[in-house]
Amino acid sequence: LTSPADEVAPAVSRDGRWMAYVSNESGRAEVYVREFPGMGGRAQVSLDGGTEPAWSRDGRELYYRKGGALYAASVRPGAGFEIASRARLFVEPDYAADLTHRYYDVTPDGRFVMIRDLEGGARLNVTLNWFQNLGTNRKEDE
Predict the structure, then answer these.
(1) Is 85 helix (H, G, I), strand (E, B) or coil?
(2) Residues 9, 52: contact at Cβ < 8 Å?
């Protein structure tokens, strides 16, 4: 997008018709949707701030974050983009959030996978010799 605002975190719907993104053109981060790739008019999705947009698998909901809360905007099917309702799904302040990157995803069955903030920084566990540690002998020709 070409504008004087900062526009980040694009998320294209599964059918390829719509692009959700975050823009600060109003003075705070908000989630918007535009037709894709046409870049016609836009619709504001979040109210009073929003980040990290993600589409549901069926394209009927657009999820976004606001602070420690996750919201769902229900989308009416049809020729244009229309929001039927918005609802706060849950509040969980211990999950990581960011303006430019999405720290969660939606599984095919509608559950959420999220990254939790850890006190004292992030931790990564690496397991070497996975099969040997399990006591399994793996043979390539079997």
Answers:
(1) strand
(2) yes
